[in-house]
Structures are given as structure tokens and as C-alpha cells.
Amino acid sequence: MNRIYRLVWSKSRLCWCVASEFARHSGKRGRALVVIALGTLGLLLVGDALAADAGQYVNDSADASCVVVQDSALSGDLDWKYGGNTSNCESVSKPVQATRMLASGNPTGDAVTYDDDSHNRISLGGDAYDAYSHTGGTTLSNVANGVDSSDAVNVSQLNDLANTPMTFVGNTGSVDKKLGDTLFIEGASTTAGTYSGSNLRTEVDANGHLQLQLADNPMFDSVTTGNTTINENGLSILGGPSVNFYGIDAGNFRITSVAAGDIGFGSTDAVNGSQLNATNQQVQQNTTDITNFNYGLVGPMQRTGTDQLSLIAIGGDAYAPGASQVLNNVAAGAILATSTDAINGSQLHETNQQVNANTLNITQVDNRVSNVEGDITTLQGDVKHQGDHIENIYNSGTRYFHANSSGTDSSATGVDSVAIGMGATASHDGSVALGAGSVADGSTLGHQAFLLGGTATGEVNVGQRRVTGLSAGADDSDAVNVAQLKQVTGASTEGSVKYDLNGDGSVNYNSVTLAGTSYNSASRTGGTKITNVARGEHDSDAVNMAQLGETNALVTNIDGRVTTIEGSVTTINNGGGIKYFHANSTQADSVASGSNAVAVGPNAQSTGKGSIAMGAGATSTADGSVALGQGASDNGRGAESYTGLYSNAANTSVGTVSVGNAATGETRTLSNVADGKEATDAVNLRQLSGAVAESKQYSDDSISHINSNVANVTTNVSNLDNRVTHVEGDVTNVQNGTDGMFQVNNTSHLPKPKATGNDSVAGGAGAQAIAESSTAIGSNAQARGRSSVAIGANSVAERDNSVSVGSAGHERQITNVAAGTAPTDAVNVGQMQQSIGNMSNQFYDYTDSRYNALRHDLQKQDDVLSAGIAGAMAMATLPQPYSPGASMAAVGLGNFRGQGALSVGVSKISNDGKWVTKLQGGMNSQGDAGVAVGVGYQW
């Protein structure tokens, strides 16, 4: 290959230098003045290579319009002439090396020159090149093979490139494709739809191989394999099972190989056939037990005849029941004439208690009138059950109990009420009307309404008759006799405030004189203080100290007579006081520290908001309270909300007015008090005496009426004594469990049943209903769980809301269980067996179907994965060029577990050999296609 030289300017040596075309520039910058590229352009051929070496120094000079380039070291021994406008410039020596040179300017003859001084373009002569016919243009011959990236290439290099195939390497083979050949990268899918490569990507491994990778967790909107579809709604099989957010639809197929589920509280596991079979066996046993129990063949209660039941002791049976048993936890039966309910111990105990009370009341009836109503009410119920013995009472009465009247019959319409006598009416619940014309309606007593300390639960009306022989009442609800009322009358007149009397003895409602020491105006002693006086509003109203204090405050500002007031104030501060308002004391000054408070008097203290303390040492600490008088104190009582005693009216006070001190026992009399008019006015002694007198008269009249009827009641009660005796005998038998519709045999002498839980029931000897709302029936039965039921001797119900017919180690069967119909009904063995059979068939069918579908899906998925692996292998086998500037087209094949794939690719290495680019795609036997591209940089 010929050497090619060029002239370059060396800034460091300050000269033009001849350098090889392939010499590298060193330094920050350089510029070629004239580049002679003989090898590349083929414009000027030189037979032999120039003898100069790269970097030889030359000098230039002028010679008849020619530029002479000389070797400075040889003084012109080696020189060339470059002509700007002529081709006749010749070298003056070395004719062998003479040549014709090219410089810038207009071309002449066969010279080839740059188009302009920029030296960026050269236009060759000749016909214009036709790209369609490939004719015209100028042929450059003898072009050497290009080496550097900027060298021209010749036809032989292009032919070599065109004839060099690109090899596409796959995992299982490769394919060669020349430039211009077609490389097919196809997919086998022909189904219309949406396709994407969101689950695929290309990766360059450490060996520079471009790999097609599938996401470890690929995401698909929907996957369909045969009849199976998986999407965001779940998994569905055409004509088969489905799984979605709401559960699994077995599609009437059987599920097999189900592991044993957890059987416990809160468990949501599925159970298998073996577990259900165990349950069926237990249910079968329970069904038999329930059947025997229902027919009375087993259990704590068995049939001994068509209409007979017997409580069975442990070890006994219907023919030999053994020791008598106690039936516990028996609910309260209805006590009616037609009732067939069993009566429990608590009901019988209540009856016994009432009978005992009746016996005591009957023997003491003359002194216990207050209990007659309850006794008669109880006896009335007892008498109703006496049958034929009282059949003739209505027409002719009974011994010691008769009525002689042709008037209106008595009427007892109130619940538990009694009416005795012609026209007697008892309409209020629990009331008693004794005597002809008596009315007990619950709202009046002696035709006058009263409410004493609470709400009455009943009433006794004797119809304007006197009640005699009445003992002194002891409790709040007892009747009082005249002697007690006289004591009240005498006590009520003491300490009361009364109006003054006129000369004729009549009441003077215009004058009230309060008792106590007469007031001495000179010494300002004596008299009686009035406390809790409201603020006066009208001319005739009394004013309180608060109003007087306000007036005093205004008086101090009258007329603006400051000079006179200053002297008066000095006098006041020294204890001299003011006109009509003085104080004589050497004690500490009063203090009103509460907001809007008033304190008047030596050492008076008013600390409560809006409080008043008037008097030496008076203290008012509560808001809105008033303390009047020496040492008076409100004792901290301020605003209060309470129910008034005897009135039952709601009260909300704003404060307390005190004229004494509860802590020290100091009190005062409030005298000259006018008669109260409104409900909240104070009453005086005169009013209280009148009220007591009226009450006394009413009591006397009422007692007289009661006395007249007590004699009749005594006679009637005596007639009931024999009947009560008979009732007692019946009650005793019922209490011992030897009579009635519910009997027990307590041979073992077990204790009585105990129902200690709230609203619980216990029936049977030793039965215990301990928990709330529990029920225990049977000897020693125990109901410990809330709302639990224990049935049978020694049965134990420990869990809440459970029913137990036995205990641990002593279980019982529940037999004759009807088929359940509601969701909460018990099921019998027949239902359970039928359900198990149906479920088993469904489980088997569903499991077989799911197994076959799953096996098909796995096989399909295995083919898809194998095809994907084959595709990756096919792309991995694609080769790539190895030399700089080379390109390659390659084809690869792959096969994995019977699935095949074809891949093709095109790769390119940059001219400097640093960058490698590669594009490849593939298609597998499942119809899936993929494309990958990669770029790499090597160093």
C-alpha cells in the first residue's frame, strides 16, 4: 500500500512540516493548509513514496508565481514548487521525485481542485449521476482500501461487506442473512385482540448476550387456557366450578383430598367426609338418645304409665325409680282455675309466707286493721278454689257472714280490689271498699283529696264510718288514732306565728305580733328578726336589708354636700354611724368580699356572690344567701334543687335566708308574720293551727267510719279461719312435694332447690340455678352458664346459652327429635345422613372436575413456559459481529421439552469498536412473539 503524506503547520516549531497521512496530531489544536489525500481521492498518483519522513522541516519562498518548498537543512536539496495559477511549476531538482501538485484556485486542464477556499467540498466533472439508472458521474479508480473511519472505501470492500452474512444465534442454532436478505420475525397468533410486551424486557448479561426476560410475576388482564379463564373477577371454567371474591362455586362437582379442618369456636375451615362421618355417628347416637328421652324410656324422667311420669334416681328405671328426686329450675306456673302448670318452690314459698301472715293477721285482726286489705285479697283467691263449699254464698251467705239487702250489688273492678256491702265500689287497683255505699277509687279519701308522702298503692274506704279500736301507728304508712292526732295538734300550735285577735275574739288579719322580748328603740334590743324576706316591689311590701343597703348607698351621694359628708364619714368610720343607721362596736370592720355582696355589722363577712351578712359576726358564704342577726350563718347553703317534703313539688332555690346558726344551735323566732297567700309564702301559727284542726276533724270522722266497719270485718274473717286451715294443709303437701301436679320423692333428703341467679329457675332436690336467667331441673342439676338449661339428675350446664342433659362422663341421648325446618332448629340423624350424602357426592364430583381442569391447565401452562424458554434460547443463540464497523444479521432456533422457537436479529459494531447495538425478535410454537433491543459499550 502506498504511503500518503501531507503538509501540516507545526506551531511548536514554527514551520510547515511533511507528515504521514496517518500521523496523529499532538497539542491543543492544529490546521492543515493543504491536504493531499492521494490514496483516498486518487487524484494524483505518485509512483514511489516521497522520501521525506513525517515531521521533516521545510521552508517556503517565491519563484515566478510558484511557491517553493525547500528542505532548510539541505539548502534546497529537496524542494517543490506549487503553482497557484499555472501547471508549469516544476521542481528545480530531484526530477525523479517531481510531481504535479494541487493547490487552491480554478482548475485547469485535468486538475481536480476544491470548490472554494473553505476546502470543504470537491465537485468532480463528468455527467451527472442518475440514481435510478446508475449512470453518469465520475469513476474514482485505484482507490485503496479504507482503513480509518474517514477513509474512502472501494468496491471490493463493499462487495466483501455485502457478501458477509449476519449470523443470528439462538439457544439451539443460528441463521445467516446477507444484506438485502429478508429475515422473518413472526408470531403464530392469528386471533384479533390487544397485544403488548409489558411483561417482557431485554437484558444484556455479563457476556454481552442480549436476553429476552419474562417478568417473575407477569400481570395479565385476563388469561384463557381452553375453557378456563382467569381475570380480575376470579377463575371460571366453562360449564364447571368458579372461584371469585364471594367464594367458590363447585358447579355440582365433588371436592376430594380435603384436609381435616379445625373444629373449634371461630373456625372457618372446611371439614372433610371423615370429620362429617364422625359427626354423623354422634348425631345418630344423639338421635337415638333423644328418641328414648322423648318416649320416656331413658333420662331423669320416664313414663310409668300412659299419663304418668316419674323422676328417676341414678341407677333406677321406670319400674324401680329409686330414691325420690328433686326437680329444680322449674319456671313459675300460671295460677289460674284452668291452669295445669307446675308450681315451683318460690311460688309455694310465697303462698306459705302469705298463709303464715294470714294466720298471724287473723289472730291479731282487731289490732292490725292496716293489714286487713292484704289478708282479704289473699283470702279472696283462696276462697275462689273452695268449689262447692261456697256455692250458696251469693244467695244465703255463710256461717257468721251474711248480708241483708235488696240494693245494688257491690263492684270490685280494680285489680286485686275488694268491695263488701250494698253498692260498695272498689275501682282502684288494690283498694278495699267496706260498707254500703263505700267508694274506693284511689283518688279521694272521705271525699277530700290528699297526698301524704308518696303515691298510694291502694285504698280502704269505709263510707263515712268510724273506725274504733285503732292502735297507734308506728310506720309512715300506718293509720293514726285520735290520741296521736291530738299530740300533733298540740305540737303544731307551739312556735307558730298567728294573727292578732280582735276584741270580740275574731281574727285580725291586719295585725301580727311576734312573740319574744319587746323591741326597745332606745337600746335597739329585743324584738324578733325576720329572715328570707324577698325584695319589696310595691308600696306595701316589706323591704329587706339588701334594698336598705342600696338605699344607704344612694343616700351617701345626695346633694353633693362633700364638706358635711366628710365629717359624717369620719364619724361613721369611727363607729358613730349615720341617722337611723348606727353601730356600736370596737370589733373589726365588716367585709363584703363576694361579688355584689353586702356585709353590715361588726366583723360581718359576706364572701358569697350576691350574699348578705347583717349582724355582729354574721357570715354568708354561699352565693345568693342571707345571714341576719348576731352570729347568724347560712352554713354554706346556697342555691339548691330538691323535692319538697309532703308537697312533692320540685324546688330550685337561689339561696338561703338564715336568722341563726345550725352549727352552734342558735335559733330565733320570726314574729308578726302575716298569713301566707301564695304557695311560696311563709305561713304563721294561726294558719298552721287551722290546718291541724281541719286535719284532726277529718281524721276523727274517718276513724269513726272505720270503727263501724271493723266489727263486720272481724266477723267475716273468723268465718275464713276454717278455710285457711284447709288451705294450709294443701300448702304443706305442695311444699313437701307430695301433692299437686308436680311431685318429688326426696328419699335422699337433698336440700331444697336454689335459684340464686337473677330471673333463674330451679326445680328438684339439690338443683341449683346459679347464673342469670338459668334453668336447672332434676336432682342436683346445676345451671352455671348465663341463660343455660340443665335437664336431668346431676346434669351440669356450664357454658352460656347452652342446654345440657348430662355431665362429663354421664351423657344422655336426646331422642324423637323432629326434622328441623328453621335455620336454628336441631337436626336429627336422618337429616344429617341425607345432608352428608348430598355433600359427599358434590365434594367428589367437584374435586374430580377441578383436578382434571387443573391438570389440563398445568399441562397447558407447561407448554407455554417451555415455549417461552425455547424462545429465550433461540434469541440467546444469535451471534453478533466482533470487528469494528462490522454488522451482522442472524437467525436462531430453540427447542425445550417439545416446544420450539425461532429468533432473528441484526447487530452492529461501531467503527471504533466501542459501541454494540442489537435488535432481535422471536416467535415460539405457542404463537407468542417477542422483540428485544439492546445497546452496549465496551472498553
Automatic annotation (TrEMBL):
Residues 140-164, 254-295, 328-367, 466-496, 529-564, 670-709, 813-849 form the Trimeric autotransporter adhesin YadA-like stalk domain. InterPro entries: Adhesin_Head_dom, Coiled_stalk_dom, ESPR, Pilin-like, Serralysin-like_metalloprot_C, YadA_C. It comes from Pseudomonas putida (Arthrobacter siderocapsulatus). It comes from the Bacteria. GO terms for biological process: protein transport. GO terms for cellular component: cell outer membrane; cell surface. Keywords: Cell outer membrane, Membrane, Protein transport, Signal, Transmembrane, Transmembrane beta strand, Transport. This is Cell surface protein. Coiled coil: none annotated. Belongs to the autotransporter-2 (AT-2) (TC 1.B.40) family. It is found in: Cell outer membrane; Cell surface. Residues 412-438, 592-618, 755-781, 783-807 form the Trimeric autotransporter adhesin YadA-like head domain.
